[in-house]
Design goal:
Ribbon_hlx_hlx; Arc_rbn_hlx_hlx; mainly alpha; Ribbon-helix-helix; Predicted_DNA_bind_prot_RHH
């Protein structure tokens, strides 16, 4: 089966601590927000937090 074309996204592989998976799954379920969107938000927050050190 062919991989679907992702025009505005880039696929990558990562892993999570086992203890985070259940809570992450529950958050996505309760909020009805896709995990990919939740990850986008988390990465954006992380980049803002570390923006100052990235400039140095």
């Amino acid at each position: 089966m062919a991989e679907p074309y992702l025009k505005y996204r880039t696929r990558f592989t990562s892993s999570l601590k086992n203890e985070l998976v259940k809570e992450f799954d529950e958050l996505a379920k309760v909020t009805r927000i896709p995990k990919s969107r939740l990850l986008d938000e988390a990465i954006e927050d992380l980049l803002k937090k570390h923006k100052k050190s990235l400039k140095e």
